Amino acid sequence: MVAIDAGHGGPDYLGAVFKDAQGRVLVIEKDINLQVAKLLAGILVSRGYRVLLTRDGDYTLTPFSSPDLNERVGKEQQARVDLANQAGADIIVSIHFNGYDDARLRGTETYYNMARPFAQKNRRLAEAVHAGILASLKTAGYASADRGINSDESIGSRYSQRWSFLLGANPGFARPSQMPGIIGEALFVTNPDEAGLLQDARIMQAVAKGYADGIERYFAQEERAA
Length: 226
Description:
The protein has 6 helices and 8 strands, in the order E-E-E-H-E-H-E-E-H-E-H-E-H-H. By secondary structure, the protein is of the alpha/beta class. The protein has a single domain (about 1-225), classed as Zn-dependent exopeptidases (Aminopeptidase). The strands form 2 sheets. Strands 4-1-5-8-6-7 form a 6-stranded mixed beta sheet, sandwiched between helices. Strands 2-3 form a two-stranded antiparallel sheet. Helix 3 packs antiparallel against helix 6 (about 200-225).
């Protein structure tokens, strides 16, 4: 089973946002995360995989009401990890799109955790999905900048944690994930060119297909190694 996590969600957990010169919001990360998650689920089901969506609409699993950001995000991520653990998922794939203050930044990067008992599987999954997304985008007509496969420490540091909540085993995070996983950042919402691409249905389909191709490659590799 593949647990698919559409990052963010609900009215208070938007993720990255792109606004035009007039200040109009054109792209909200939570929405495109969900769009790709649903497309990916459809592709995987058509290829014979079982899937779990941690969310299938615009909501969070927790009230997301604490005044403390770390607590809000930690509780929400714990709820999503709990779903994947309870379902006995083989992997968890969290779909995100990047955002940064510098609108010039662009490209594709994928995060994994290097400190779990299944760290090597994490890396192999990251490598397979990263390559899949880059190849699929290129086929769709966009040669994305390769920003590499990176440790999730930079994500954890945003919340005063060693690792990301979703992939790591941080002190105080009671029930860490029990399966290999990655966080994908296919393109930058905050880059004007890539924000334009994210409004193109062909590109969204290409991102979803890239995830699916990478997941399939990962499982094939693991089967051969068994």
